[in-house]
Amino acid sequence: MLKSSYTKNLMEAGCDEAGRGCLAGPVFAAAVILPKNYQNEKLDDSKKLNLGRREELRTQILNDAIAWAVASVDNGKIDEINILNASILAMQLAVGKLSTQPQFLLIDGNRFKPYKDIPHECIVKGDGKYLSIAAASILAKTYRDDFMEKIDLEFPEYNWKQNKGYPVEKHKTAIAKHGITPYHRKSFKFNEQIKVPFM
Questions:
Q1: pTM of this structure
Q2: pLDDT for the residue 189
Q3: Which of 15, 56, 108, 178 qualifies as a FRET site for 125, CA 20 to 30 Å off?
Q4: Which domains does the chain have, with CATH numbers?
Q5: How far apart are CA 11 and CA 108, in angstroms?
Q6: What are 79-97's pLDDT values in tens digits?
């Protein structure tokens, strides 16, 4: 089972993002405060879980968490400040939306910018090490997937309900054929074989 906490006594929020490597759509982030000594053997990095298990765990996280929040940064802002800064901003926005202010932040990955006066620690592959980060990864992933399935109704030719905006072959082929949408990230380097003029 993943570790329940990083500190002994501080109220911790685990933070993670989803959608960083996509060609389209926002980047989503979540912050989750779980009870001290929380235990859940099923909770893990969202990338290791199938759809059914992620949905099951999302419901459990929302019920069990002391506080949780989800935030997003759209493709326009990603183009303006770059995806790394947008991912950090999304995590900061999620922390800011928490109903209970944490005393310590556990950040998935190796980069973050201080938020207010809350100390933080970056944990590489933290979503596979700490329960709160894993919980945040599941919320960020499932809420972003819901968003991508919603905008798939506007642009079904890109098959976002399946690929969620990631650069799979069918998505890149659709870009080559139809061009980009208002949801695509113009700052991203598309595959060299795709000659798409950005508008």
A1: 0.93
A2: 65
A3: 56
A4: 12-151 (3.30.420.10)
A5: 17
A6: 999 999 999 999 999 999 9
